[in-house]
Amino acid sequence: MPAANADIIRQLQREILPLQGFKPPTAGKAVDFHLGPIAAAFPNQTFPTGAVHEFISHTAQQSAATNGFLGGLLAPLMKNGGACLWITGKRTSFPPGFSIYGVSPDRLLFLDLREEKDRCWAMEEALKCEALTAVIGEISEIGFTGSRRLQLAVEQSRVTGFLLRHAPRHSGTVASVARWEISPLPSEPEEGLPGIGFPRWQTTLLKVRNGRPGSWVVEWSAGRFQFPEEAVQPGEPLGMPQITTLQTHHATHKRLTG
Amino acid sequence: MTTKSYTALWFRHLKTDWFQLRRPPLKDKPFVLSISDHGRKLVAAADPKAESQGIFRGATVADARAIIPGIEVLDDIPGLSDKLLGALAEWCIRFTPIAAVDAPDGLLLDTTGCSHLWGGDRPYLQAILTRLQARGYDVRGAMAGTIGAAWALARFGHQAVTPEPARQREELLRLPPAALRLEPATLEKLQKLGLVTAGHFAHMTRSVLRRRFGPQLLRRLDQAFGREEEFLQPLQPIEQYQERLPCLEPIATATGIGIALQRLLEALTKRVQKEGKGIREALLKAYRLDGKIEQQKIATNRPSDNAPHLFKLFELKIGEIEPDLGIELFTLEATKLEDLSPVQEELWAGDQGLEARPIAELLDQLTGRFGGQCIRRYLPDEHHWPERSIKPAPDLSVKPAIPWRTDRPRPTILLPQPIPIQVTAPVPDYPPLLFRHQGKVHRIKKADGPERIQREWWLEEGPHRDYYCVEDQDGARYWLFRSGHYTGDRNQQWFLHGYFP
Fold first, then answer.
1. Taking a C-beta distance cutoff of 8 angstroms, is the pair A106, B402 a contact?
2. Left if phi > 0, otherwise alpha if psi is -120 to 50, otherwise beta: which for A195?
3. What is the value of pTM for the model shown?
4. Which of A59, A257, B141, B174 has its CA 20 to 30 A from that of B30?
5. Residue in B closest to A70 by C-alpha
6. What is the pLDDT of residues A40-70, one digit of tens each?
7. Alpha-carbon distance B501 to B497, whole Å?
């Protein structure tokens, strides 16, 4: 009997997921993000495109790390020649920095708007435009209603939206499919080589709709995300975001001793 | 070929009418406008009441005062009649697109093919005249097949409209020679010879007329009778791509304006489509009942013949049109057109890149709302200096001329202004041991560099920069540089310029 129930539950879940915005990618359109264990945290074991993701950052260092991680996500999304609109308040993003992630910086369109209200409007309009591959909006303060509008726009157009929230004053519920926080981690130099190694981040999924939040160490090398063997792989569900700092300390400690 | 039709308007008291409009008390008393000429005051214009007493243009003000002791004398405004005629001609564009100023006191309109909109020649001319008269101008007008005939009939004719060419000729022959726009010397000569109507000499041998009166008389005769073509100098160059929508009832609501706009756009895009062109800039003019013209302009990033898209751009601006009492005429003009390369319909819509039409349309919408300066796309430029290594792309279709460089590390966040930092750097040409930024000490654990970037001396003077990529104890990565050579004690020459991911 329990086996039959589990079957029914699985069947129901499969029906509910598309209704919640996790539509399976159309045939031939699946994009491989090389997200490895992170992808497993999402329903269907795939990184959801055609949805709004939310990235929280508190410092400029975190913003830079978020930009890097975003570059890694954009590259496979835009590899067929797609374009991305980046809505900024005060432009600090430096396009040439994205070329090492495989994103052609000339396909990034920047829209500078000082007012947050204007940025929200522009983001909603841009998300309705099916020809865009991704829309990035630097909107720190967005309410549930505002984000719901973005979600509705995205469900129609299947454009992937990224909300970059720098130092948000309140972290209430936002209608996004996932909430990320990317922090820089000390890099591991290659064997016998001086200097800085490949960029490495503590990637934390604070919230995932219908998924399992977690925290992973991600490195960008050889043109894709890598998951270093020696770094701690939590795997288990994560309750509190404080783990970010714990792991940073752990990694630092390890590097100093090892 | 359709027969031509011209309308001439003659403002008999243009300047005095205007003065009366400006100062209503002048309506009841005779007055003249004066100009100074060689120390005397001459009458530049006299109103009908003064004229009825025998005061005409060119008389001295002293004589005028002798005839009517209490006559009002006002100063003439130089250039007034040109200005007034220009404004009136612009106003007349509601009746015909080709309106010309006929200095010093008339207007000429090319009304070919316009009058049927008003239900025939007579109601059309009547509409023009009554509306001008209602505004307070003493105006006479005539419509004829040539400019010369219209001019003559407006000033000397008895009948307002003379449509048939045969009747027109007869009418013309009865008019005095002055109706042919001749020089005063020629007129005097004709008068002396007793040729007091055009009919007296119109049938004379051409060679005789030329010998006696010069070629000008023959030219004027030919122009009046349509043997020689005469051209107008239109006030506004003829707009090729213009659509007009006169409204029976004045429109004063946003919905009404929207509907008018949609109709105009459909007509214009249909026409533009046929010629394989697309609209880059369009101008909507709304002629209000009170004579003011409201304008709204849109521009697109690439040629478009998509009426719904163009409407969306105008839609944002409908709110800015003030209809006041109502709008009686809309004109939509494509001020800039470009060839539209035919696009193949996409079989599978998907990643179409920057050239995709919806992207251009989205950008139009954004620039329409926020202005063109806010959207930027960058191309690599051939400079190593970080601030100059990118340049804004002029439009969406430009591809990078040189590849993006990936051989040197570049941050994803570049500060608009490098921030001075305090560092401890014991060894020359080595990365610093630690730096202080916003009150926090960053101990540098790993570093790469230096990468020396010289300032381009042909662009600006100044020291070079030695860039270092450094990583601090928390794992954050920075882009620092030392400005100029290592000098030992000067601490202020280190800067933070960016953040690496």
1. no
2. left
3. 0.62
4. B141
5. B501
6. 888 878 888 888 999 999 998 999 999 999 9
7. 14
- Tens of pLDDT along B94-118? 888 888 888 788 899 988 888 888 8
Strand positions, DSSP E, B134-176: 139-144
Domains within chain B, CATH numbers bracketed: 6-154 (3.40.1170.60), 242-339 (3.30.1490.100), 413-500 (no CATH)
Cβ neighbours of B277 (radius 10 Å): 18
Q: Is-contact A39 A30, C-beta < 8 A? A: no
In chain B, residues with a C-beta closer than 8 Å to the C-beta of A110 are 375-378
- Assess contact for B171 and B142: CB atoms under 8 A: no
In a domain, A38, yes or no: no
How many CB atoms neighbour CB B122 within 10 A?
14
Lowest model confidence (mean pLDDT) among A42-51, A105-114, A132-141: A42-51
> Which residues form the domain of A188?
182-258
Structural contact between residues B298 and B281, judged by C-beta atoms closer than 8 angstroms? yes
The pair of structure tokens assigned to B107 is 């207007």
Chain position carrying tokens 């013209």: B293
Cβ pair B356, B293 in contact under 8 A = no
Distance of alpha carbon B292 from alpha carbon B288, whole angstroms: 5
B414 closest CA partner among A89, A138, A94, A184: A94
Nearest to B375 among A111, A184, A187 (CB): A111
Beta strand pairing call for A52-57 and A178-185: parallel
Q: Examine the domain organization and report whether A188 and A155 are in the same domain.
A: no
Number of domains, chain A: 2
Specify the pLDDT at position A175.
86
Closest CB to A98 among B366, B375, B412: B412
Written as one string, the DSSP assignment of B348-360 is: S-S--GGG-HHHH
A105: chain B residues, CB-CB within 8 Å: 378, 380, 390, 404
Clarify whether residues A141 and A254 are in a common domain.
no
The string over B302-326, giving b where at least 16 C-beta atoms fall within 10 Å of a residue's C-beta and e elsewhere, is: bbbbbbebbbebbbebbeebebeeb
- Predicted confidence (pLDDT) per residue in B220-260, tens digit: 888 888 888 888 777 776 657 888 888 888 888 889 899 99
Say yes or no: A142 and A242 in one domain.
Answer: no
